[in-house]
Amino acid sequence: MSKFDSLAQVVGRLIEEPEAHGHMGQLAQDLGLERSQFQRMFKEQMGITPARFRQFLMSRRALAHLRMDKSILAASLDAVFSSSSRLHDALITWEAMSPGMMRHGGTGQKITHGVTDSLLGPMMLAWTEMGLCFVGFVQTYDGSFHDLRTRHPHALHQRDDVTAKQFLHDMGFMTGQPCQCRMHLMGSNFQLQVWRALLQVRQGFWTSYGDLAEAMGKPKASRAIGGAVGANPLAVLVPCHRVMAADGRWNGYHWGLDIKKALIAIEAGDQSSDSTSFME
């Protein structure tokens, strides 16, 4: 087993049972590493030490100060909706679909998908000729492909795992590098507005459905906004994982609450000094 695969297993164990791994020595031993080597490798790959990662998985208090200010979010949205020259617009094809188009589910459209490994587990990526149209975390291949087919039931589907691996690299996922791949977002006008708004929730911070609704100028639409957030087809790239309950409680995530916790913890690590002792 490669060091990458072994570290992915360790990350999975921390996500599933953070309470059971308060002492990291055994995890280091499982990888055949000294404790200091394990800490350094984990930090290099995850951007956060294992102790801090575990702390964020277990504690809401650690996240409380990372709530994005509503006024900052609203100002950011005002700039986005009044200008089409933003950097992310250069990388994204926004395709508003009528109800009729959505019912037909991409008839005749060619969509290629593939599965590739990440430190948070296997991921499925799918793309059209205009860019990535689906990114999700895989529990089972059949389940993920069903998810993709449900979104595009009449498209022409084919598989290419090699290109999927390259797309994941170009996404910059967990590399600290900016996304270099195009995205093809297809949805209703309302969904596209919500997904565009999600792009303004800064990495390392989170917002609530109510705050997002207010920032969008739709204070009574938090339930509908929640539905659009849940329908987001591009995990990580359109950061629906950065939306929490108003009181900071962990709430649902299409690809699993454990994955959401891990994504938030990794991003929060960039915003917090790591004063936690590795051995404690």
How would you describe this structure to a colleague?
β2 and β3 (123-128) form a beta hairpin. This protein folds into 2 domains: 3-64, no CATH class; 70-260, Arc Repressor Mutant, subunit A, CATH 1.10.10. It is of the alpha/beta class and 280 residues long. The strands form 3 sheets. It has a 4-stranded mixed beta sheet, with helices on both faces. α12 (209-215) packs across α13 (222-230). The chain has 14 helices and 8 strands.
List the helices and strands and how they pair.
Layout: H1 3-16, H2 25-30, H3 35-46, H4 50-58, H5 61-64, H6 70-81, H7 87-91, E1 92-96, H8 99-104, E2 110-116, E3 123-128, E4 131-137, H9 141-151, E5 156-159, H10 161-171, E6 183-187, H11 189-198, E7 207-208, H12 209-215, H13 222-230, E8 243-244, H14 257-269
Parallel strand pairs: 1-6, 2-5, 7-8
Antiparallel strand pairs: 2-3, 3-4
CATH superfamily of the largest domain: Winged helix-like DNA-binding domain superfamily/Winged helix DNA-binding domain
The shape is globular
How are helices and strands ordered from N to C?
A: HHHHHHHEHEEEHEHEHEHHEH
Sequence stretches where pLDDT stays below 50 over 5 or more residues = 83-90, 273-280
Tell me what portion of residues adopts beta-strand conformation: 5-15%
**So, CATH architecture of the largest domain?**
Orthogonal Bundle
Q: Might you state the CATH topology name of the largest domain?
A: Arc Repressor Mutant, subunit A
User: Helices and strands: which structural class?
Assistant: alpha/beta
